[in-house]
Amino acid sequence: MSKETLEMGDLEKKDENQKQKNVVEAPDSCCGVRHFQVFLTFLLTFIAYGIRVNLSVAIVAMTTKASENPDIPIFDWHNKSIILSSFFWGYIIPQVGAGQLAKKFGPKWFLVATMFICSIFGLLLPIMAETMGSEGVMASRALQGFCQGFIFPSIHNLLSYWVPVSERSRLGTFVYAGGPLGTVVSMIVSGIISASWYGWPLIFYVYGVLGILWSIAMAILGSNKPCESKIISKEEQAYIETSLGHSSHQKPLPTPWKSILTSLPVWAILVTHCGQNWGFWTLITEIPSYMNTVMHFQIKSNSYLSALPYFVLWILSFVFSGFADFLIIKKYTSLGATRKIFNSIGLVCPAIALVFLGFMDEEHKNLAIALLVIAVGLNSAIYSGFNVNHMDISPNHSGTLMGITNCVSNIFSLLAPLFVQVVVTDEKNTLQWQVVFGVASAIYVVSNFVFVFCGSGEIQEWNNEGKEESEQV
Fold this sequence. Notes:
The chain is mostly helical. It is 74% helix and 0% strand. It is built from 21 helices and no strands. α2 runs parallel beside α9 and α6 packs antiparallel against α11. The two termini are 40 Å apart.
């Protein structure tokens, strides 16, 4: 082969590399259509979590006098923990199916329809409480939970088409951090409204309207994939699709159910997800009652203090995710080791804080608040732990994996408040709260132990099962 031929080949190769480089370069605009889609998804998690947790504050006002308005109804309910758990009765049902439906048909219209219906039942909740009592509230919340069961599997699917690999950590964290921020705002706003002349019913009206407005915005402006967007530039679409390594027109791979269900790393994520949900929802549903009955905070200050730990969680989620990406990019730790380190921070440290929290009483208010902030705030490290591990071990089936683990784990979200209902027969009894916090601590530690010893950061062999058959179709 002549020297000229070799040089010509080198030039062609260099030219081809340059073309590929041009394709994957990010568009000049720092705010593209993909960022707007991510912002819409952030608003969804923000509003959805607001709806999910507003009853935790409102139920205090629904059962004790918080407003000076004599027309605001107050109920004599002794099944508050059961009421708080009712959201998860419906939530666990559609998870796996939602992931498969979003994968086959696209998530947009499922999100629009379910959020709209969820919001309607929020608007109806005060009427159902007055006419049907606690059973009416439980029915409304169960239906809201069913609708929200479509959210996270659908979000995973949406992000898998819209977010380039190089932006996944930042934009993914931004989306999922909408949940903690929505929790903060909901708790504060719910406390203020509960103590106002308009009383607790206004909480559900506000969030019902916000949900409906989001559904309208998503219906008009949202898209399943870049190729379906009418406003995206060809340059940005090419950048996204090339970064993800496939075309948006590519058919989804068949789901390797047997391989998934027999995979040890999948089971490690599942167990950890269950443990996380038990502890997280024990705190998020019971903190307002604990602050009110044990620490004797009034409803308005109670809402601020209940929200504080989740504000810290929101802030620290960005700190931990940035540091985790730094360790991975610099190759100081492997992907799997990084997930296990941050997962341990997110579960073991809160477990220690919860043990001490159980021994606090009214005389140690400031210390109790500090322990709550530690327990909830450091829990944000799990966003860089098991919470993103689905995408690490199987990028092609991460939505389905999230549907599976989110479905099973939310059984524990349901059981946690019921456990409190059985154990805490006297809400002023600190010994009973010690049992609640002690059990949550033990579950945190055990589930993290399973993840550390059985989890993985490697892409599993079954991730590409059926790829050749799919490409031939």
